[in-house]
Write a structure and sequence with these properties.
By secondary structure, this protein is α/β, with parallel strands linked by helices. It has two domains: 4-157 and 369-384, 3-Layer(aba) Sandwich (Rossmann fold); 159-365 and 385-445, Dihydrodipicolinate Reductase, domain 2, CATH 3.30.360.10. The chain has 14 helices and 16 strands. A ten-stranded mixed sheet has the order 14-13-12-11-7-10-9-8-15-16. Strand 15 (411-414) and strand 16 form a beta hairpin.
Protein backbone atom coordinates (compact mmCIF):
# COMPACT_ATOMS: atom_id res chain seq x y z
CA UNK A 1 0.00 0.00 0.00
CA UNK A 2 1.30 3.45 -0.88
CA UNK A 3 2.23 5.24 2.32
CA UNK A 4 0.87 8.71 3.01
CA UNK A 5 4.42 10.05 2.94
CA UNK A 6 5.13 8.63 -0.53
CA UNK A 7 1.75 9.83 -1.74
CA UNK A 8 2.51 13.36 -0.64
CA UNK A 9 6.07 13.32 -1.92
CA UNK A 10 4.74 12.36 -5.31
CA UNK A 11 2.26 15.21 -5.15
CA UNK A 12 5.00 17.65 -4.12
CA UNK A 13 7.16 16.46 -7.00
CA UNK A 14 4.27 17.37 -9.28
CA UNK A 15 4.65 20.94 -7.87
CA UNK A 16 1.35 20.95 -6.02
CA UNK A 17 0.56 19.25 -2.72
CA UNK A 18 -2.85 17.68 -3.28
CA UNK A 19 -3.36 15.50 -0.21
CA UNK A 20 -3.29 15.40 3.52
CA UNK A 21 -0.65 15.59 6.21
CA UNK A 22 1.25 12.56 7.38
CA UNK A 23 -0.18 12.83 10.86
CA UNK A 24 0.08 9.72 12.98
CA UNK A 25 -3.35 10.41 14.37
CA UNK A 26 -4.83 8.38 11.55
CA UNK A 27 -6.50 11.09 9.49
CA UNK A 28 -7.58 10.17 5.99
CA UNK A 29 -5.82 11.44 2.91
CA UNK A 30 -8.31 14.27 2.38
CA UNK A 31 -7.82 15.94 5.77
CA UNK A 32 -5.79 19.10 6.34
CA UNK A 33 -3.06 20.17 8.74
CA UNK A 34 -4.97 21.58 11.70
CA UNK A 35 -3.41 24.72 13.16
CA UNK A 36 -3.80 26.76 16.32
CA UNK A 37 -2.32 30.17 17.12
CA UNK A 38 -0.89 31.55 20.35
CA UNK A 39 -0.88 35.29 19.73
CA UNK A 40 -3.38 36.39 17.09
CA UNK A 41 -2.80 40.04 16.21
CA UNK A 42 0.12 42.16 15.01
CA UNK A 43 2.84 39.77 13.86
CA UNK A 44 0.61 36.93 15.01
CA UNK A 45 -2.10 37.95 12.56
CA UNK A 46 0.35 38.34 9.67
CA UNK A 47 1.67 34.83 10.45
CA UNK A 48 -1.88 33.45 10.53
CA UNK A 49 -2.87 35.21 7.32
CA UNK A 50 0.22 33.90 5.53
CA UNK A 51 -0.37 30.34 6.77
CA UNK A 52 -4.04 30.57 5.77
CA UNK A 53 -3.15 31.01 2.10
CA UNK A 54 -1.83 27.43 2.00
CA UNK A 55 -4.44 25.12 0.53
CA UNK A 56 -3.94 22.21 2.90
CA UNK A 57 -4.30 23.75 6.34
CA UNK A 58 -7.13 24.95 8.50
CA UNK A 59 -7.11 26.86 11.77
CA UNK A 60 -9.08 25.07 14.47
CA UNK A 61 -8.38 27.50 17.35
CA UNK A 62 -7.09 31.02 17.96
CA UNK A 63 -5.70 32.30 21.25
CA UNK A 64 -4.75 35.76 22.50
CA UNK A 65 -4.50 37.13 26.03
CA UNK A 66 -6.32 40.24 24.78
CA UNK A 67 -9.70 39.37 23.26
CA UNK A 68 -9.90 42.79 21.61
CA UNK A 69 -6.93 41.65 19.51
CA UNK A 70 -8.84 38.73 18.00
CA UNK A 71 -11.13 40.84 15.79
CA UNK A 72 -9.02 40.27 12.68
CA UNK A 73 -8.91 36.49 13.06
CA UNK A 74 -12.65 36.43 13.74
CA UNK A 75 -13.19 38.10 10.36
CA UNK A 76 -10.71 35.74 8.71
CA UNK A 77 -12.33 32.59 10.14
CA UNK A 78 -15.63 33.41 11.91
CA UNK A 79 -16.38 29.85 13.01
CA UNK A 80 -12.99 29.14 14.64
CA UNK A 81 -13.17 29.18 18.47
CA UNK A 82 -11.29 31.86 20.41
CA UNK A 83 -9.37 31.29 23.65
CA UNK A 84 -7.69 33.69 26.06
CA UNK A 85 -5.43 31.10 27.74
CA UNK A 86 -3.50 28.70 25.51
CA UNK A 87 -3.44 26.12 28.30
CA UNK A 88 -7.24 25.99 28.21
CA UNK A 89 -7.08 25.74 24.43
CA UNK A 90 -4.78 22.72 24.66
CA UNK A 91 -6.92 21.13 27.35
CA UNK A 92 -10.02 21.34 25.17
CA UNK A 93 -8.66 21.03 21.62
CA UNK A 94 -5.41 19.04 21.89
CA UNK A 95 -6.76 16.08 19.90
CA UNK A 96 -7.71 18.39 17.03
CA UNK A 97 -4.45 20.37 16.84
CA UNK A 98 -1.51 19.23 14.71
CA UNK A 99 0.64 22.36 14.75
CA UNK A 100 0.94 25.72 16.51
CA UNK A 101 2.16 29.20 15.62
CA UNK A 102 3.70 31.10 18.55
CA UNK A 103 3.66 34.90 18.09
CA UNK A 104 3.91 36.32 21.61
CA UNK A 105 6.39 38.66 23.30
CA UNK A 106 9.84 37.05 23.63
CA UNK A 107 9.53 36.10 27.30
CA UNK A 108 6.69 33.65 26.56
CA UNK A 109 8.15 31.90 23.49
CA UNK A 110 9.75 29.03 25.38
CA UNK A 111 6.84 28.33 27.72
CA UNK A 112 4.30 28.23 24.89
CA UNK A 113 6.47 26.37 22.36
CA UNK A 114 7.73 23.73 24.80
CA UNK A 115 4.16 23.14 26.01
CA UNK A 116 3.16 22.44 22.41
CA UNK A 117 6.17 20.27 21.53
CA UNK A 118 5.74 18.15 24.66
CA UNK A 119 2.27 17.36 23.31
CA UNK A 120 3.73 16.35 19.94
CA UNK A 121 2.64 19.50 18.08
CA UNK A 122 4.72 21.01 15.28
CA UNK A 123 5.76 24.60 16.12
CA UNK A 124 6.47 27.78 14.18
CA UNK A 125 7.92 30.31 16.66
CA UNK A 126 8.69 33.97 16.21
CA UNK A 127 12.24 35.22 16.68
CA UNK A 128 14.30 35.36 18.81
CA UNK A 129 13.54 31.77 19.72
CA UNK A 130 13.68 32.40 23.48
CA UNK A 131 14.36 35.06 26.08
CA UNK A 132 17.42 33.47 27.73
CA UNK A 133 20.13 30.93 26.96
CA UNK A 134 18.87 28.15 29.23
CA UNK A 135 15.43 28.33 27.60
CA UNK A 136 17.10 28.24 24.20
CA UNK A 137 18.97 25.02 25.02
CA UNK A 138 15.75 23.46 26.35
CA UNK A 139 13.84 24.42 23.20
CA UNK A 140 16.52 22.78 21.05
CA UNK A 141 16.52 19.66 23.20
CA UNK A 142 12.76 19.22 23.33
CA UNK A 143 12.47 19.82 19.58
CA UNK A 144 15.15 17.21 18.92
CA UNK A 145 13.66 14.63 21.27
CA UNK A 146 10.04 15.12 20.20
CA UNK A 147 10.82 14.91 16.48
CA UNK A 148 8.26 17.59 15.61
CA UNK A 149 8.72 19.92 12.64
CA UNK A 150 9.91 23.36 13.72
CA UNK A 151 10.70 26.66 12.07
CA UNK A 152 11.97 30.03 13.30
CA UNK A 153 9.92 33.07 12.29
CA UNK A 154 12.76 34.74 10.37
CA UNK A 155 10.75 34.78 7.15
CA UNK A 156 13.41 36.61 5.12
CA UNK A 157 15.49 33.41 5.34
CA UNK A 158 13.37 32.24 2.39
CA UNK A 159 13.42 35.55 0.48
CA UNK A 160 15.22 35.67 -2.85
CA UNK A 161 17.49 38.53 -1.73
CA UNK A 162 18.89 36.65 1.27
CA UNK A 163 19.04 33.38 -0.68
CA UNK A 164 20.96 35.18 -3.45
CA UNK A 165 23.46 36.55 -0.92
CA UNK A 166 24.06 33.00 0.32
CA UNK A 167 24.72 31.78 -3.21
CA UNK A 168 27.13 34.64 -3.93
CA UNK A 169 29.24 33.91 -0.86
CA UNK A 170 29.29 30.16 -1.35
CA UNK A 171 30.19 30.48 -5.04
CA UNK A 172 33.36 32.37 -4.03
CA UNK A 173 32.32 35.66 -5.62
CA UNK A 174 34.15 37.73 -2.98
CA UNK A 175 36.72 35.12 -1.98
CA UNK A 176 37.07 33.88 1.57
CA UNK A 177 35.37 36.13 4.14
CA UNK A 178 37.66 37.91 6.60
CA UNK A 179 35.24 40.00 8.68
CA UNK A 180 31.53 40.79 9.06
CA UNK A 181 29.80 44.04 10.02
CA UNK A 182 26.04 44.10 10.70
CA UNK A 183 23.87 47.02 11.74
CA UNK A 184 20.35 48.38 12.21
CA UNK A 185 19.26 51.98 13.00
CA UNK A 186 16.58 50.87 15.47
CA UNK A 187 17.39 51.87 19.07
CA UNK A 188 17.30 49.38 21.91
CA UNK A 189 14.39 51.33 23.41
CA UNK A 190 12.00 53.71 21.72
CA UNK A 191 8.58 52.11 21.38
CA UNK A 192 7.76 52.21 25.08
CA UNK A 193 8.73 55.89 25.45
CA UNK A 194 10.17 54.99 28.86
CA UNK A 195 13.54 54.44 30.51
CA UNK A 196 12.01 53.47 33.85
CA UNK A 197 8.71 52.01 35.02
CA UNK A 198 5.66 54.28 34.88
CA UNK A 199 4.46 55.44 38.27
CA UNK A 200 1.08 54.31 39.52
CA UNK A 201 -1.23 51.63 38.18
CA UNK A 202 -3.95 51.80 35.54
CA UNK A 203 -7.08 49.63 35.43
CA UNK A 204 -6.52 46.52 33.31
CA UNK A 205 -8.83 46.53 30.27
CA UNK A 206 -11.66 44.01 30.53
CA UNK A 207 -10.45 42.35 27.34
CA UNK A 208 -6.94 41.66 28.71
CA UNK A 209 -5.77 38.86 30.99
CA UNK A 210 -2.82 40.69 32.53
CA UNK A 211 -1.68 37.69 34.59
CA UNK A 212 -1.33 35.58 31.43
CA UNK A 213 0.39 38.42 29.58
CA UNK A 214 3.00 38.69 32.37
CA UNK A 215 3.31 34.88 32.34
CA UNK A 216 6.77 33.71 33.42
CA UNK A 217 8.04 37.22 34.29
CA UNK A 218 7.84 38.96 37.68
CA UNK A 219 4.45 40.61 38.21
CA UNK A 220 4.23 44.39 37.78
CA UNK A 221 1.30 46.82 37.61
CA UNK A 222 -0.42 47.36 34.27
CA UNK A 223 0.17 50.75 32.64
CA UNK A 224 -1.68 52.20 29.67
CA UNK A 225 0.79 55.09 29.33
CA UNK A 226 2.03 55.14 25.72
CA UNK A 227 0.98 51.47 25.64
CA UNK A 228 4.40 50.96 27.16
CA UNK A 229 4.02 47.19 27.71
CA UNK A 230 1.05 45.90 25.76
CA UNK A 231 0.74 45.69 22.85
CA UNK A 232 3.78 47.55 21.49
CA UNK A 233 6.39 48.64 24.01
CA UNK A 234 7.34 45.27 25.53
CA UNK A 235 10.42 44.79 23.35
CA UNK A 236 12.25 47.61 25.15
CA UNK A 237 11.93 46.04 28.61
CA UNK A 238 14.54 43.57 29.80
CA UNK A 239 11.88 41.42 31.55
CA UNK A 240 9.93 40.87 28.33
CA UNK A 241 11.92 41.71 25.19
CA UNK A 242 15.44 41.54 23.80
CA UNK A 243 16.05 45.04 22.43
CA UNK A 244 17.15 45.92 18.91
CA UNK A 245 19.40 42.89 18.46
CA UNK A 246 16.53 40.65 19.58
CA UNK A 247 14.19 42.33 17.13
CA UNK A 248 16.48 42.26 14.08
CA UNK A 249 19.42 39.99 14.84
CA UNK A 250 17.77 36.75 13.67
CA UNK A 251 16.95 38.51 10.39
CA UNK A 252 20.12 40.40 9.62
CA UNK A 253 22.58 37.79 10.90
CA UNK A 254 20.66 34.95 9.20
CA UNK A 255 22.25 35.20 5.72
CA UNK A 256 25.65 35.54 7.41
CA UNK A 257 25.21 32.31 9.37
CA UNK A 258 23.66 30.48 6.42
CA UNK A 259 26.14 31.67 3.80
CA UNK A 260 29.19 30.91 5.94
CA UNK A 261 27.69 27.68 7.30
CA UNK A 262 28.41 28.73 10.88
CA UNK A 263 27.63 25.79 13.13
CA UNK A 264 30.26 26.11 15.82
CA UNK A 265 29.65 28.08 19.00
CA UNK A 266 30.76 31.64 19.58
CA UNK A 267 33.28 32.23 22.33
CA UNK A 268 34.39 35.73 23.33
CA UNK A 269 32.01 38.68 23.60
CA UNK A 270 32.71 42.39 23.89
CA UNK A 271 30.04 45.08 24.20
CA UNK A 272 29.72 48.82 24.56
CA UNK A 273 26.65 51.02 24.82
CA UNK A 274 25.28 54.51 25.36
CA UNK A 275 24.08 53.85 28.92
CA UNK A 276 21.52 51.56 30.53
CA UNK A 277 19.68 50.73 33.73
CA UNK A 278 18.03 47.57 35.08
CA UNK A 279 14.75 48.12 33.23
CA UNK A 280 15.22 48.86 29.52
CA UNK A 281 17.87 48.05 26.91
CA UNK A 282 20.38 50.72 25.85
CA UNK A 283 19.48 53.14 23.06
CA UNK A 284 22.74 52.40 21.21
CA UNK A 285 24.88 49.28 21.37
CA UNK A 286 27.93 47.71 19.79
CA UNK A 287 28.72 43.98 20.11
CA UNK A 288 31.70 42.02 18.89
CA UNK A 289 31.95 38.25 19.04
CA UNK A 290 33.88 35.52 17.26
CA UNK A 291 32.80 32.20 15.79
CA UNK A 292 34.81 29.27 14.42
CA UNK A 293 35.96 29.65 10.83
CA UNK A 294 34.49 27.50 8.06
CA UNK A 295 35.37 26.59 4.48
CA UNK A 296 34.06 30.04 3.49
CA UNK A 297 36.22 32.11 5.86
CA UNK A 298 39.83 33.23 5.50
CA UNK A 299 40.92 32.40 9.07
CA UNK A 300 40.08 29.83 11.73
CA UNK A 301 38.23 32.52 13.69
CA UNK A 302 35.76 35.07 12.30
CA UNK A 303 34.87 38.34 14.03
CA UNK A 304 31.31 39.66 13.69
CA UNK A 305 30.45 43.21 14.81
CA UNK A 306 26.91 44.44 15.44
CA UNK A 307 25.82 48.09 15.77
CA UNK A 308 22.37 49.52 16.45
CA UNK A 309 20.67 52.76 17.43
CA UNK A 310 22.37 54.75 14.66
CA UNK A 311 25.93 53.59 15.26
CA UNK A 312 27.61 53.16 11.88
CA UNK A 313 29.48 50.10 10.59
CA UNK A 314 33.21 50.45 9.95
CA UNK A 315 34.05 50.32 6.23
CA UNK A 316 37.78 50.22 6.94
CA UNK A 317 39.39 47.24 5.23
CA UNK A 318 36.43 46.72 2.92
CA UNK A 319 36.15 47.33 -0.83
CA UNK A 320 33.35 49.87 -0.33
CA UNK A 321 34.44 53.44 -1.16
CA UNK A 322 34.56 55.73 1.87
CA UNK A 323 32.01 58.13 0.33
CA UNK A 324 29.48 55.39 -0.42
CA UNK A 325 26.36 55.47 1.71
CA UNK A 326 25.50 52.05 3.06
CA UNK A 327 21.86 50.90 3.44
CA UNK A 328 20.02 51.79 6.64
CA UNK A 329 20.38 48.23 7.89
CA UNK A 330 22.09 45.05 6.76
CA UNK A 331 25.41 43.23 6.73
CA UNK A 332 28.77 43.75 5.05
CA UNK A 333 30.89 40.66 4.41
CA UNK A 334 34.49 41.68 3.72
CA UNK A 335 36.16 39.09 1.53
CA UNK A 336 39.63 38.61 0.07
CA UNK A 337 38.67 39.83 -3.41
CA UNK A 338 35.49 41.80 -2.80
CA UNK A 339 32.89 42.94 -0.30
CA UNK A 340 29.27 41.85 -0.29
CA UNK A 341 26.71 44.27 1.14
CA UNK A 342 23.43 42.58 2.08
CA UNK A 343 20.76 45.22 2.71
CA UNK A 344 17.85 44.26 4.94
CA UNK A 345 15.35 43.11 2.28
CA UNK A 346 16.94 44.54 -0.85
CA UNK A 347 19.17 43.20 -3.60
CA UNK A 348 22.79 42.42 -2.58
CA UNK A 349 25.62 44.65 -3.83
CA UNK A 350 29.11 43.42 -4.71
CA UNK A 351 32.06 45.82 -4.41
CA UNK A 352 35.26 44.76 -6.16
CA UNK A 353 38.84 46.00 -6.08
CA UNK A 354 38.86 49.73 -6.84
CA UNK A 355 35.40 50.25 -5.41
CA UNK A 356 33.43 49.18 -8.47
CA UNK A 357 29.91 48.06 -7.56
CA UNK A 358 27.98 45.41 -9.46
CA UNK A 359 24.65 43.64 -9.19
CA UNK A 360 25.35 41.31 -12.07
CA UNK A 361 24.38 37.89 -10.83
CA UNK A 362 21.56 35.40 -11.13
CA UNK A 363 18.78 35.93 -8.59
CA UNK A 364 17.83 32.93 -6.46
CA UNK A 365 14.33 31.51 -6.32
CA UNK A 366 11.91 33.21 -3.93
CA UNK A 367 10.34 30.71 -1.51
CA UNK A 368 7.32 30.98 0.76
CA UNK A 369 8.61 30.68 4.33
CA UNK A 370 5.21 29.93 5.83
CA UNK A 371 4.14 27.41 3.22
CA UNK A 372 7.54 25.78 3.54
CA UNK A 373 6.85 25.00 7.21
CA UNK A 374 3.40 23.62 6.45
CA UNK A 375 4.85 21.49 3.65
CA UNK A 376 7.48 20.27 6.11
CA UNK A 377 4.77 19.26 8.59
CA UNK A 378 2.91 17.42 5.84
CA UNK A 379 5.95 15.67 4.38
CA UNK A 380 7.70 15.20 7.73
CA UNK A 381 10.77 17.16 6.57
CA UNK A 382 12.60 19.73 8.70
CA UNK A 383 13.09 23.19 7.15
CA UNK A 384 16.61 24.57 6.87
CA UNK A 385 15.98 26.95 9.78
CA UNK A 386 14.49 24.55 12.30
CA UNK A 387 15.02 25.02 16.04
CA UNK A 388 18.54 23.53 15.86
CA UNK A 389 19.66 26.22 13.41
CA UNK A 390 17.40 28.82 15.04
CA UNK A 391 18.86 27.98 18.43
CA UNK A 392 22.44 28.58 17.27
CA UNK A 393 21.43 31.91 15.75
CA UNK A 394 19.41 32.95 18.81
CA UNK A 395 22.16 32.05 21.28
CA UNK A 396 24.61 34.64 19.93
CA UNK A 397 21.93 37.30 20.34
CA UNK A 398 21.11 36.29 23.90
CA UNK A 399 24.79 36.18 24.83
CA UNK A 400 25.28 39.63 23.34
CA UNK A 401 22.54 40.92 25.64
CA UNK A 402 24.45 39.51 28.59
CA UNK A 403 27.69 41.12 27.43
CA UNK A 404 25.92 44.48 27.29
CA UNK A 405 25.60 44.34 31.08
CA UNK A 406 29.39 44.28 31.38
CA UNK A 407 30.52 47.01 28.98
CA UNK A 408 34.10 47.09 27.71
CA UNK A 409 34.81 43.71 29.33
CA UNK A 410 35.62 40.65 27.23
CA UNK A 411 33.54 37.68 28.34
CA UNK A 412 34.82 34.18 27.59
CA UNK A 413 32.03 31.73 26.77
CA UNK A 414 32.29 27.95 27.12
CA UNK A 415 29.38 26.66 25.04
CA UNK A 416 29.78 23.03 26.09
CA UNK A 417 29.60 23.85 29.80
CA UNK A 418 27.12 26.67 29.15
CA UNK A 419 28.97 29.17 31.30
CA UNK A 420 31.16 32.24 31.18
CA UNK A 421 34.55 31.18 32.46
CA UNK A 422 35.88 34.60 33.50
CA UNK A 423 32.83 36.30 35.02
CA UNK A 424 30.57 34.34 37.34
CA UNK A 425 28.26 37.34 37.76
CA UNK A 426 27.39 37.10 34.05
CA UNK A 427 26.20 33.52 34.49
CA UNK A 428 23.18 34.57 36.52
CA UNK A 429 21.68 36.07 33.34
CA UNK A 430 21.69 32.73 31.51
CA UNK A 431 18.28 31.94 32.99
CA UNK A 432 15.67 33.62 35.15
CA UNK A 433 13.49 32.88 38.17
CA UNK A 434 10.07 31.84 36.93
CA UNK A 435 6.95 33.19 38.55
CA UNK A 436 4.90 30.79 40.65
CA UNK A 437 2.45 28.92 38.45
CA UNK A 438 4.59 29.56 35.36
CA UNK A 439 7.71 27.55 36.21
CA UNK A 440 9.24 26.33 32.97
CA UNK A 441 11.11 23.59 34.84
CA UNK A 442 7.82 21.84 35.60
CA UNK A 443 7.07 21.48 31.88
CA UNK A 444 10.37 19.67 31.35
CA UNK A 445 9.80 16.88 33.89
Amino acid sequence: MTTRRRFLQGAAAASTIIAAPAIVRGQNLNSKLQLASIGSDGKGFSDIKAMSSHGYQQYVAFCDVDLDRTLNVQKLSPDTPIYQDFREMFAEKADEIDAVTVSTPDHMHAYCAISAMKMGKHVYCQKPMTHNVWENRQMMRVARESGVITRLGNQIHSHKFYRTAVQLVQSGRIGKVKEVQSWVPTPGHGRSMHISRPKGEDPVPESLNWDSWIGVAPMRPYSAEHRCYHPWGWRDWQDFGSGAVGDFGCHILDPVFTALNITGPSDDYFADHSGMNDEVWPAQTTYRFTVPGTEYTAEDRLQITWNDGGRAPDKKGSHVPAQTQLPRSGSMLIGETGTLVIPHVAAPEIYLEGGEMTQEYEMAEDLDHYHGWIDGCILEEQPSDDFQYGGRLTEVILLANIAIRFPKEKLQWDAEKMEFTNNDEANKYLSREYREGWELEKLLV
